[in-house]
Every structure is written in structure tokens, then in C-alpha cells.
Amino acid sequence: MVKKAIPLFVVYVLVASAIAGVLLTVVGTDVMPVSNNGDFQIRIQAPQGSRIEKTERIVKDITGDIKAELPDNGLNITSAFVGMHPQDLR
Question: What is the spatial distance between Cα 58 and Cα 63, in angstroms, rounded to a whole number?
Fold first, then answer.
């Protein structure tokens, strides 16, 4: 019984690692599209269960901090998504 369990375990670990590796390549691409023109993207997470007003304040504070570090007109567009992420229907 043990002789069959060890190869099965090894196969399981290899398959699970391969699946995890593939899934890690798409983590973080479900909210904002990938851009190749020098855009800067940051993911901000408020404490779980935070009220929308508190989350909005956190995002505005971080955006303000980033804007303060950039030259004039260095920040053209900001985009934020608050709440549950919709399912990606690709």
C-alpha cells in the first residue's frame, strides 16, 4: 500500500504545483487591464469590513501622497474599484 502512495503523492505535488504556477500568472490582472505605456498600477487593500467612506479616504490619501511626489501634471488619471470584484467572463 505504501509503495503505491509515494508515487501518487509525488504526482499530486507536481500537478498541484503546476496548476498553482499557472494561476499565479493571472493574479492581479482581473481588475485593471495590463498597459504597456508606462502606467503605474497599485493595489490598495483596506481592512476587511471597512465602511465605504473609510476606504474612499484611504484611496484619496494614498493618491494624494503619490501626487505630491510627482511633477506638475504627472498624474492624469486615477481609477479605483471598491467592493467585490466582478467575475472575469473572458
Answer: 9
The grid coordinates of residue 13 equal: 505535488
Closest CA to 44 of 20, 54, 36: 54
What are the tens digits of pLDDT across the range 26-71?
775 555 556 666 677 788 888 888 888 888 899 899 989 988 988 8
- The CA distance from 65 to 54, in Å, is 17
Do 55 and 82 meet the contact criterion of CB atoms below 8 Å apart? yes
DSSP state letter for 84? S
DSSP state of 41: -
Specify the pLDDT at position 86.
64
How many C-beta atoms surround the C-beta of residue 20 within 10 A? 9
Domain ranges of the chain: 1-27, 31-84
Cell numbers at 40, concatenated: 503605474
